[in-house]
Amino acid sequence: MPRGSGKLRRSLFLLAVGFSALLAGFLASLYASYYVSPRERIELRLELPRNSFVEATLGAGVAERIYYVASIEGDRNVELVATFYDVNNESIGGFTLKDARYNSSGWVVLQGQPYRVTLESTCSLCRSNVTLILLYSRFSRTEVDILSTLGALLSITGMASLSAGLYQYLFAKYLSRTEQSAEQV
């Protein structure tokens, strides 16, 4: 049995472990990304001038970053004020759309985790229908931290294992070639 065959098997094992760990790390990071993406939605509607105020509860565990889409159908520009509140009923941010006539969208980053939201219009003469759609994510920060750390550790371990396996594989091939040329002489 040639001297390099044990090293060749070990190098192939390291390559397989490295590839598997790298793949598992990538999948853990991908799942963490999916887990924090906005998947929940709530729709708020105003029919002006009849009701110019609406409120909704988002619940606990909502992320600070929220995507909104406002759609307005009506006779004039509308001013909308969306305000977000935490569990203690303290305002943690929001956004204002001035002279909103058609559709608008964007991201709002709040100072804390929102628990409820209010939408209000100050236009008393408007005859408009306003729909505000909020897209947000709800997740456990501990789970995201664990998934992110696990993904990083598995990726680093996988890359190190792949590098070591590749080095050993090349060294084992070099040894087998050296032994073959020594036997031929």
Structural features, described:
- With 185 residues, the protein is of the alpha+beta class.
- It has 2 domains: 6-34 and 142-184; 38-136, Jelly Rolls (Sandwich).
- Helix content is 42%, strand content 35%.
- The protein has a 4-stranded antiparallel β-sheet with strand order 1-8-3-6, with no helix packed on it. It has a 4-stranded antiparallel β-sheet with strand order 2-7-4-5, with no helix packed on it.
- Helix 1 runs antiparallel to helix 2 (141-184).
- The chain is rod-shaped.
- The model has no long low-confidence stretch (mean pLDDT 87).
Short description:
The chain has 185 residues and is of the alpha+beta class. It contains two helices and eight strands, in the order H-E-E-E-E-E-E-E-E-H. Helix 1 runs antiparallel to helix 2.
Features:
185 residues; alpha+beta; Jelly Rolls; 2 domains; four-stranded antiparallel sheet; 42% helix; 35% strand
